[in-house]
Amino acid sequence: MSVVTISVDVGTSVVKAVGYDADGQETGVARRASQVDRPGPGRAEQDVEAVRRRVLDVVEEVARSGGGSEEVDLVSVTAQGDGCWLVDADGAPTGTGLLWNDGRAGAQVRTWQADGVLADGFARTGSMTFSGLANALLAWCAEHEPARLDNAAAALSCGGVVHAALTGRTAIETTDASAPFLPAGETAWAEDLFALYGLDWARDLFPDPLAEDDRSRPLVDGLAAELGLADDAVAVMAPYDVPSTVLGSGAVRVGEACAILGTTLCTATVIGADEPVRGPEAGLRLRSGVPGQDLRVMPTAAGTDVLDWACGLVGVDAPVDLVALASQSPAGARGLVFLPYLSPAGERAPFLDPGARGSLHGLSLEHGREDLARAVLEGLTHAVRDCVAMAGPIPTVLRLAGGGSHNDTWAQLVADVVGCPVTRCQDAEVGARGAYLAGLVARRDVSAGRITAADVAEVADHHVAAVGRLEPDPAVTARYDDLHARFLELREAVAPTWATAPGAGPA
């Protein structure tokens, strides 16, 4: 099958490119592992040029291996969101890219929280600042590493630096623009929000957010030939990875929801663009990439990396082995409760605490490896339920995406703990599927005028297939209702100790 479209998903740990034929069927996948550098406490960085090089490598691999690659005229890119990737006037990085899970600005976030700054920002945007957002990272850089800012001409997202490498355009996509300087329902930066965080000086670093119908640009001269693409190939700046994954899951109508079981556990519920944010001051409100719709997003700071950590703890090789081991322990892990807040950056959703730390409760000599594995898996799943509940009413069906969704045992556990049916996506790379759909929509924008939510739903319904519906067991769900209450009680009891924990709150 000939490749006609390539979608790229620039994740934190892996860069992937997926080829699609004229009917939207996957034809092949190329992957390159990415390295996260941690040069100091709480820090998480990536080499910008290395990320760009990996993107070009996977695009070329898919294009040249697909047969008839000269037909590839569309490359649609989604990428990790948040963070701060500073570049100079020529698009060259002024330093490493600072990632969404970077915790160096924890002290600044706590100060803003105590002073009411975060609450004021949330009231305007529906998004709660955390240490990995651009405002916190820029404030930290200004105080601790001002040299990063000396030659900076733009503060971009990961997707922005990739789009610039492909097209030469310096831009910020609307979902990336959603937090922290873009008020809910508006399309232009708010000067007073820059002032709120003491960042008036940073306003000129941010290009105006893209219009929804301005996502595509031709590739820079000579790049199409270098990569084996059609001479007239264009690159589309798709929504960043969370909204793209929601789109790729088929959640494109108000009230629908998706849970991503990936490097971050992230839930997203579709809301109307004019709907006020209800509930606690937590999480993010993002543009969805669908006209008239936003997303109420609860992205945790840790996810499947907790499973990787636990593998070493219990002596198994991979998360799939950990889940299998967990299956040997009953629901409730014989009284063990695990709080999964292991990120050095603390937690950002469904509550904000840069000092949050994980812990294991109820341990005795009677517990075995299988109980530890079960407690870890259940702790992560309780976090999913917590996030779903914070974002709005429990959906009638929860769509699952991310690497963890492919494990039948964990998917069933999500259904039982959350208490609603779950479905999974036929695509292995759901974020790339979402970027593909965004590319189709962008092409329709150009040819047929303004796109509507109904148009996006039509495209998604045609190209997204849900498989493997799993129903919750009412008796098991009732058991987990009690266990979830215990999980929340323990977290509330332990939270006051986080401020004094060694290593909490990096400077």
Structural class: alpha+beta
Give the overall silhouette. globular
**What is the end-to-end distance?**
53 Å
Mean pLDDT level: 92
The CATH architecture of the domain at 5-242 is: 2-Layer Sandwich
What's the name of the CATH homologous superfamily of the domain at 5-242?
ATPase, nucleotide binding domain
Side-by-side strand order of the widest sheet: 13-14-12-11-17-18-19
SS elements, strand count: 19
What does this structure look like?
The structure is a single chain. Among the domains are: 5-242, ATPase, nucleotide binding domain (Nucleotidyltransferase, domain 5, 2-Layer Sandwich), CATH 3.30.420.40; 304-397 and 479-499, ATPase, nucleotide binding domain (Nucleotidyltransferase, domain 5, 2-Layer Sandwich), CATH 3.30.420.40. Helix 9 (241-249) packs across helix 14 and helix 10 runs antiparallel to helix 12 (369-391). It has 507 residues and is an alpha+beta fold. The radius of gyration is 22 Å and the shape is globular. It contains 16 helices and 19 strands. The relative contact order is 0.13. The strands form five sheets. The chain has a seven-stranded mixed β-sheet with strand order 13-14-12-11-17-18-19, with helices on both faces. Residues 27-46 are annotated as: Disordered. It holds the Pfam family FGGY_N. Belongs to the FGGY kinase family. Residues 5-248 form the Carbohydrate kinase FGGY N-terminal domain. Its EC number is 2.7.1.215.
